[in-house]
Design goal:
This protein is α+β, with helices and mostly antiparallel strands. It is built from seven helices and ten strands. 25% of the residues are buried. InterPro entries: BAT_GAF/HTH-assoc, Cro/C1-type_HTH, HTH_bacterioopsin, RNA_pol_sigma_r3/r4-like, WH-like_DNA-bd_sf.
Length: 231
């Protein structure tokens, strides 16, 4: 891949990848991707990594925030998840909990693979099949390189969306799979009609989740749509 030098008039010897490139939304799946065993056992919980840090003694600590309505199932799953150890609840709110986890030798992480090929991770969140990454690559060759590194480790890669990184139009909104499913059903069944043709209770029954989960998911999905549209 090629990296263009910044203009000399900038007065700095900084190479740039900021022009052009591609923005890819990818779904990654493997039984030993970090936390994937827990995600599969507690599918009603959505997880977002916050950061990780070197704790010394070859230990890496990962901090994550989970949201949803099935924290007990998620915490039970953490206790037997081979990709993490010593889970600790470090913070909590009405519908969110934050945890500190120690990565084990079995955990597969791919943020490094993204950085090696020149990619920049913009967003990462859990989904039903594993993890959803939104990465800006300097070019398609870098995306192919990332894909090759994933496949070398047996990680399945699915390209959900792909577009020019600097395109203003047709930007995709990073909804989770569950948010997209809920909005689709809500729209098709008339939740947004006046008067409404389906209630949140009925949506909850239709999708097999609690009313509180429906309310939270609707609120977050609409907030993300508004944020992406009005930004």
């Amino acid at each position: 891949m090629s990296l263009d030098l910044a203009a000399e008039s900038d007065g700095v010897g900084v190479r740039t990848q900021a022009d052009g490139g591609v923005l890819a939304q990818l779904t990654l799946s493997h039984p030993e991707l970090v936390l994937q065993p827990s995600l599969r056992r507690a599918p009603e919980v959505a997880v977002e990594p916050e950061y990780w840090t070197d704790a010394g003694d070859d230990r890496t600590l990962l901090f994550v925030t989970a949201s949803g309505a099935e924290f007990r199932a998620f915490e039970t799953a953490l206790g037997t998840d081979p990709t993490v150890a010593d889970p600790v609840l470090v913070d909590r709110g009405a519908d969110r909990r934050s945890y500190r986890l120690e990565l084990t030798d079995r955990a597969i992480t791919l943020v490094e693979a993204s950085a090696i090929v020149g990619g920049r991770l913009r967003e990462c969140s859990s989904c039903r099949d594993g993890w959803r990454f939104r990465i800006r690559f300097p070019d398609r060759d870098a995306l192919v390189g990332f894909n090759d590194r994933c496949r070398d480790r047996g990680v399945s890669v699915s390209v959900d969306h792909l577009r020019p990184a600097d395109a203003d139009a047709e930007a995709f909104v990073p909804l989770t799979e569950k948010q997209r499913e809920l909005l689709t059903v809500a729209y098709e069944e008339g939740y947004f009609d006046v008067p409404r043709r389906i209630s949140q209770d009925e949506l909850a029954d239709r999708l097999g989740v609690s009313k509180s989960a429906i309310s939270q998911r609707l609120r977050r999905a609409i907030a993300q749509l508004c944020g992406s549209t009005l930004a």
